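BUG: 3D viewer hangs when loading the predicted structure for this chain

Environment: internal workstation, default settings.
Expected: structure renders.
Actual: progress bar stalls at 90%.

Input used:
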Amino acid sequence: MVEAAEPIVIDSLTDIRSTEEKRASVISDARVDVPAESPTSDGYETDLEIEEEKTNYDTTGREVYVNQCKSLNIIPVSYFLRNMQTSEIQMSHHGLGPKGTKAIALALVNNTTVLKLNLADNALEAEGGLYIANMLRENCYITVLDLSENKLGTSGAKTLGDMLHINVNLKEVYLAGNNFTDKDIEHFSEVMKDFRLTHFDLSRNCIGEKGGLLLGPAIAANESLEYLNLSWNNIRRKGAIAVANGLKNNVMLKHMNLSWNGFGDEGAVAIGEAFKNNTILTWLDISHNRITAEGIKFLAKGVEGNEGLKYFGVAHNPITSSGACQLLESFGKNSSAVIETVDITNVRVNEDLWAAIKEAKQILTSLKVIHQPYMEGRKKPNPIASLKDWLGHNKHFELVEVFKRFDEEESMEVSKEVLMEAFQQAHLPFDKNNMDMLIDQLDGEGKEVVNYTSLIDTDQVKWLDECLVRYNASKKD
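Structure tokens produced before the viewer hung:
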């Protein structure tokens, strides 16, 4: 009898290949009763012996996993053992840590059945990311990988970037929430130009302006990506323009999520230009990007000739009702438009916008507009009157102090976007719709800023009355 093989322990984080060669040797020595060099009576191995070796070889990695768990002094995960022969491993939130990940990675080196691997939120950190990256240098069967929320950091970004240069079988990689910074994007931007992924997720990281400058050319050059998620980052200014320019020149992307960044009007201008060239993109979300009514003009101009976009999300941007009207009118003017859904959530629906929504739906019969409810036939709210009543019960509250606090340039003017934040922090008793209308009334002239010069030397209630008069006069005009 051949003595049982002892578990193989990896001393080096990067020595998976040599370990597998050792493991194959151990399996061969332990399972073939006739020594490999001992010939049969004819000088050749029999068909039976060859068949026995093929049958006994562990193609799932189950034995490797159990042995590695023993050597690492960790408890094997029963779910993993049960599902090693299936096509999909869903192990998010299992608390694996680097050690648990190491055992799984070694077991999957030669596994031929698992095609999708989800290890999201398992505290892998850089060390665990290294084990997975090295495994994927050898495994050519896994096509979908999710390592989201694992704090992989800079080291993890480097090892995964290096792996993507080698692995040509992965099709979808999800790396959301891993604390990747602008510097870390260097490890992905170059490989993005050539890799064969169809889906790539870098959302909920710390990518800023410099990261956007790196991603822009990579997006333009890539010829495989169909889905790209860059939401919940901090891409703005030149970085936002670079990403938009990349979209302009890309020929494959169909689904792009840029929400919760800081594109602003500069980014909106660039996206508007991209719309004129790109007819491949079908889904785009730029919600929560500080785009104003000025920026929406360029987006509206861009969609007038676009023939590919089906979903467009601009929710929670201070584009105003008139800006939303302009956008919908532009879609209506486009006889080749295929738009199916426009999301303008958080834009106050007044009479003009309600009319624009109905007209757009008449022209584009399959169009769905996601919007706030329109209070047709109801008494219109008067936020200024409500604010005056509230001030009567809160006599200590000084509006002028709120304006001064948020007027950093001391220009005696505060933008609508900043004032919305100021009033929310001051806990004024309004929902978002009424808050939006209140600021419109204080603005009075549709300039997107509120000038509070006259409030300095005037009773605040009297000043509110003056704002309301000015607002009503502008509506009559």
